[in-house]
Amino acid sequence: MAENREVTIYDIAKHLKISAATVSRGLKNSSSVSKATRKRIAEVAEELGYQSNTFASSLRSKSTHTLGVLVPRLNSYFMSSVLAGMENAANRHGYNLIIAQSLEDAEKEKQNAATMFNKRVDGLLISLSYDTQDINHLEPFFKRNIPVVFFDRVHPHPSSTSVVIDNFGAAYNVTKHLIDQGCQRIMHLGGNVLRNVYKERFEGYRQALKDNHIPFNDKLHFVSNLTEKDGAVAASHILSLPPAKRPDAVFSANDTAAVYCMIALKSAGLRIPVDVGFAGFNNDPVSKVIEPNLTTVDYAGDSVGNTAVTNLINHLKGVSNLYSTNTITLRADMIIRASSLKINPEQ
Fold first, then answer.
1. Which of 31, 64, 77, 196 could disulfide-pair with 284, CB 3.0 to 4.6 Å?
2. Do 309 and 315 touch, CB atoms closer than 8 A?
3. How far apart are CA 24 and CA 337, in angstroms?
4. Residue 338 φ then ψ, to 5°
5. Confidence at 340, pLDDT banded by 50, 70, 90
6. Would 265 be classed as within a structural domain?
7. Three-state SS string across 193-216, please?
8. For residue 43, what are the domain limits?
9. Are residues 183 and 290 in the same domain?
10. 345: in domain
11. What is the C-alpha to C-alpha distance for residues 103 and 127, in angstroms, rounded to an integer?
12. Do 69 and 35 have their domain in common?
């Protein structure tokens, strides 16, 4: 056999002196081939360096058993949890994942989507980048009836389903908790309201203020990318204000910005929660490391990922109709910790 020639099922058949059809069925673990023969086929396939031609197989079956996953960034505890849930669900059903990140860039997201489409993925799971304006780049999927599931950062579309949490309700509850602790000047560290998650968290914050007769102050709405650096910049902004006009609480749309804002304020001598209470969102591990521990909102990333993939695969298998509901809303719970407890610190 030529050294660089690809090994085929015919080579395995010749080696074992059996038919190529038997080898093919054995590699697919068919019960029509004895267990001993299947074992021997697998051993010889490995010995000869056989690789399954999944591309040719996918052309015959019109299915690649591969799902594309587009995320804003991989260096996020929440997104890592989502991907773990997705992989668990995909593995259970015999599917593979191709994962790419947009790095919060709409143009890179478009390029990645085109790559997924050209790789003939059976379905696409996507959480939109920070600055994505529209979803025209997903039209090839919709036109070819390739199912699309949005998760976390979503965009409504009649031919898709979104897996989300009640961001509005969770943000409302966090803000109300801070108000119940006696806070009247609550700053919101928010993200780009192009994205549903940050828009809804901002709206929940505003509604809680309104329902409790606290006027909204746009100087207490600090919009950023919610990075570590942005948390520190928010702290500098707070320290630049006259003491009487500084916020007595901060509600951040993620834990990262909250924690780094806390660190900077503590370094400047402010006491948390005595001088300023804090609450975040996501229940990242860092929320339990910072002192005092950070009040936050918990929603399981693995559950988001598992739900998104399971619903997509059930649709592909004809078990259910993905579009029977356009939104799947999962549970989110507020976790109250010391960073926000001004009235009852032992609560």
1. 77
2. no
3. 59
4. -65, -25
5. very high
6. yes
7. CCCHHHHHHHHHHHHHHHHCCCCC
8. 9-52
9. yes
10. no
11. 11
12. no
